[in-house]
Amino acid sequence: MFGLFNKKKFEIYAPVLGKVIDITEVEDAVFSSKMLGDGFAVEPETDCILAPCDGQIVLLAGTKHAVAIEKDGVQILIHVGLDTVELNGAGFEVHIKENDSVKQGDKLITFDRNYILSQEKKLTTIVVLTNMADKVKNVVKTLEDSSGKILVIEPK
């Protein structure tokens, strides 16, 4: 009963297989300066974005290039590619809708890497905690392996 109000830590996994990089290395100042929050990025080797944790879909961009999941009040934005909003959804297919509940590993978005690259867009996929200041007490970041947990979050 006394632990009723204690929120447990949870893990965020890479949403796509590939080389994991620190968010400060992303070639976009909005992300690399952590203007939207802290996180990490992946240079994708596959074309499928998976849920990085259990949660609820709270945002799905009309242009299909970004999705946000909420877990324990923490919002996790997954942004596929750089400047891909300019493609207006071309090259992307979504497999979920807003308010869906998802489990870690569920398919969220697939993308046509050849099309996106032919449009001179980078595939760098960013994972960012957009409401860190309000909802996150602590983040432990490890960037060694894209098949394992990358962030451990302790909600406030």
Automatic annotation (TrEMBL):
Ranges where the PTS EIIA type-1 domain occurs: 28-131
Assigned keywords, A-Z: Kinase, Phosphotransferase system, Sugar transport, Transferase, Transport
Gene3D superfamilies recorded: Glucose Permease (Domain IIA)
Molecular functions per Gene Ontology: kinase activity
Name of this protein: PTS system, glucose-specific IIA component
Main location: cytoplasm
Subcellular location: Cytoplasm
Biological process terms in GO annotation: phosphoenolpyruvate-dependent sugar phosphotransferase system
Lineage top rank: taxon: Bacteria
InterPro entries cross-referenced by the UniProt entry: Dup_hybrid_motif, PTS_EIIA_1_perm, PTS_EIIA_component
